[in-house]
């Protein structure tokens, strides 16, 4: 959870603070109001969903932890946003791995053939 402190002049500081996305207003020892955000949210009022800016592709699932978000990729995908297919074994001779009909396959350069472009 993350907290962001906001100054208020009220005798009930949390009455003036609207924490969003189920964040909770808490008071510090000196009476300052702050929002305690649930995992995956940040900002002064917990208004930012960290996974909203992390559009995982190809069935990837965004997980937010602390101050960062990351995609968990299903096989055969990898990359920051699960944008790259992984061919196993790797494509040879400059071939590229593509995801076609739910399978990772090598797209071979002209003059090369075979499952792995060898």
Shape: rod-shaped
Strand order of the largest sheet: 1-3-2
Helicity level: under 10%
Structural class: mainly beta
DSSP E strands, number: 11
CATH structural fold name of the largest domain: Laminin
At the fourth level of CATH, the homologous superfamily of the largest domain is: Laminin
What's the number of structural domains? 2
Fraction in beta strands: 35-45%
Question: What is the ordering of alpha helices and beta strands?
Answer: EEEEEEEEEEE
The number of helical segments is 0
Largest sheet: 3 strands, antiparallel
Distance between the termini: 51 Å
- Uncertain runs are 5-9
Mean pLDDT: 88
Overall CATH class of the largest domain: Mainly Beta
How many whole angstroms does the radius of gyration measure? 23 Å
**Architecture of the largest domain, CATH level 2?**
Ribbon
Question: Could you explain how this protein is built, in words?
Answer:
Disulfide bonds join 73-82. Pfam families: EGF, hEGF. Residues 10-44, 47-83 form the EGF-like domain. InterPro entries: EGF, EGF-like_Ca-bd_dom, EGF-like_CS, Notch_Cell-Fate_Det. With 118 residues, the protein is mainly beta. The chain has two domains: 2-50, Laminin (Ribbon); 52-107, Laminin, CATH 2.10.25. Helices cover 0% and strands 36% of the residues. The chain contains no helices and eleven strands. The chain has strands at residues 2-6, 24-27, 33-37, 41-42, 48-49, 61-65, 68-72, 77-78, 84-85, 96-100, 103-107. The strands form five sheets. Strands 1-3-2 form a three-stranded antiparallel beta sheet, with no helix packed on it. The protein starts with a strand and ends in an 11-residue tail after the last strand. Residues 5-9 have low confidence and may be disordered.
């Amino acid at each position: 959870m993350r907290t962001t402190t906001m100054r208020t002049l009220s005798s009930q500081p949390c009455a003036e603070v609207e924490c969003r996305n189920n964040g909770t207003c808490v008071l510090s020892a000196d009476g300052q109001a702050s929002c305690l955000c649930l995992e995956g949210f940040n900002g002064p009022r917990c208004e930012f969903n960290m996974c909203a800016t992390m559009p995982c592709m190809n069935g990837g699932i965004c997980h937010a932890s602390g101050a960062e978000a990351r995609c968990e990729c299903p096989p055969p995908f990898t990359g920051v946003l699960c944008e790259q297919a992984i061919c196993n074994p790797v494509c040879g001779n400059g071939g590229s791995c593509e995801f076609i009909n739910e399978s990772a396959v090598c797209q071979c350069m002209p003059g090369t053939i075979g499952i792995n472009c060898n």
